[in-house]
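Here we describe the complex-level prediction in full. Unlike the single-chain runs in Section 2.1, the four entities below were treated as one system.
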Amino acid sequence: MDENKRKALEEAGWRVGSADEFLELTPEETAYVELKLTLANSLRDRRQAQHLTQVELAQRLQSSQSRVAKMEAGDPSVSLDLLIRSLLALGTTQEDLALILAP
Amino acid sequence: MDENKRKALEEAGWRVGSADEFLELTPEETAYVELKLTLANSLRDRRQAQHLTQVELAQRLQSSQSRVAKMEAGDPSVSLDLLIRSLLALGTTQEDLALILAP
DNA sequence: CAATAATATGTCATATCTGATATATTATCA
DNA sequence: TGATAATATATCAGATATGACATATTATTG
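The structure predicted for the assembly as a whole is:
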């Protein structure tokens, strides 16, 4: 899936804000990255709303602080699967997810 | 995540229709399985709506027919990540996803 | 009823993701 | 300011998901 393109962009200082098919990203790849960022932002929002630190969330998830940081950054090494499981662990429902994705 | 519980259920003839915290599934696990089945069903619907066979979809995804079958079955060996990427490959937008998840 | 297209199931080597760890950077506050 | 809490970044061994393949089962159609 060549997630490194985005990483490369960022390293080059490009700050992928929202929706960047900029260089070389197929529409699916763009949609994938956007989706990941949407979920990543939502995860951070929800964690903070529950007054949890990354360390505390990591404990709840049986994960590590560094991975939580990567999740919230939408890092290429994090799958949608992990992101969504983390949201579910914060009590996010399927309906909540729909609202997160809705325009 | 012990996805095998559900597999076990099904093998025991339990047909996990919708929402089975039945035996031993935590709320998150139940939500995860439900979500997976929602996406799995949607994938099948969309594939059929576009008159594609599993083989044809597999080609488009650079995957295999057997994996598409597993996706549509919500098999434990399939991640939400792959399911969602497959939906995106069928032209599903973030907004579409929201509708798929909405009650 | 074949024949064959479509889908399902099982296995496995490899690729990718993950938790852990170490360490760096950036708040926060006394 | 310095101390320290919170977050970010890098690396890697082990875990998990993946595509490929073989083969079985179930439509479909002639």
